[in-house]
Amino acid sequence: MAAEIGGSDGVSTQPPDWDVWKSDRVNAFSWAALFLWGAIVVLASSTTWHESYDWWDGWGVFFIGAGVIVTVEAFIRLTLPEYRWKVGWTLMWGIVFLSFGLSVFYGPAWLALVLLALAVATVAGALRNTG
Questions:
Q1: What DSSP string runs through the chain?
Q2: Are 11 and 82 in contact (CB under 8 A)?
Q3: pTM score, two decimals?
């Protein structure tokens, strides 16, 4: 029997059971988009197509695209109350992936600052919820 998600306001902080995970179409489409993006980047990197772009770095481009896909997933989850139960973590992973990709082009200081900010935000959230 599937657990119902959402309280009186349609938002639940309780983790869903396995039936809900299996029926998470937003997550399935996000994974499909990530695999498709990865295939496109690999094909572009393994052909001569990318040689006309001086800025091309396969891993950087992949992680920027992955970050965008996962961040879009988080915003889709915000608009659909039945899928709203993992928005925070999804958004955080989107930011991490985006930061990995941007650090390839702008240096590791970018990544360090973003990871530090996420660590502080995570600890602040944990301290706030221990109440």
A1: -PPPP--TTS---SPP-HHHHHT-HHHHHHHHHHHHHHHHHHHHHHSSGGGG-TT--HHHHHHHHHHHHHHHHHHHHHH-GGGGGGHHHHHHHHHHHHHHHHHHHH-HHHHHHHHHHHHHHHHHHHHHHT-
A2: no
A3: 0.76
SS (H, E, C) 47-71: CCHHHHCCCCCHHHHHHHHHHHHHH
Q: What is the pLDDT of residues 73-84, one digit of tens each?
A: 999 999 988 888
Could you tell me which residues come within 8 angstroms of residue 107 by beta carbon, excluding any fewer than 6 positions away? none
Q: What residue has token string 């702008």? A: 106
Q: Which residues contact 37 (CB under 8 A, 6 or more apart)?
A: 62, 65, 66, 69
Structure tokens belonging to residue 46 = 């393994």
Q: Which residue's structure tokens are 């944990």?
A: 126
